[in-house]
């Protein structure tokens, strides 16, 4: 991206071109990369928090989850925009008081920090999060994330074409062990 620097948690800063842009330009770039329409219907993606006072976006902080600790780091590094993979705002607020999410919203508004979340739009993107995660396995072909009408905890499926049933059984075994720390039976 064409912004001055990227900040990752653990205070690792990567300097790029010295450049700034308006928030609407930054959001347009993010939306062109992965349109919010790619996201699941239940998800909350895109620009989630827009400060009243507009300022140039010079510093973007990238995070998987926007926690209070990450928020403190964003303030310390003078971030103008936080790109949080998981949406920190999911349900409507009835009041903003002293809860940890309330504090994040209040701090962002007070400091003029915008928040953008791509979540499932990045999952479904070709070459996106799902494809990246599956690179750890010997998968021949991947189809996009599809919502599945099945009982919890299985609410989505990723279809992968493998060379043999044994490879498929091994893939299911490794994924479930890593995800849940237990083994599940594969029924082909």
Automatic annotation (TrEMBL):
A divalent metal cation binds at residues 86, 123. GO terms for cellular component: mitochondrion. It comes from the Eukaryota. The keyword Metal-binding applies. Keywords: Metal-binding. One of its GO terms (molecular function) is metal ion binding. Signal peptide: none annotated. It holds the Pfam family DUF34_NIF3. The keyword Metal-binding applies. PANTHER family: NGG1 INTERACTING FACTOR 3, NIF3-LIKE PROTEIN 1. Belongs to the GTP cyclohydrolase I type 2/NIF3 family. This is NIF3-like protein 1. It comes from Scylla paramamosain. The lineage of its organism: Eukaryota, Metazoa, Ecdysozoa, Arthropoda, Crustacea.
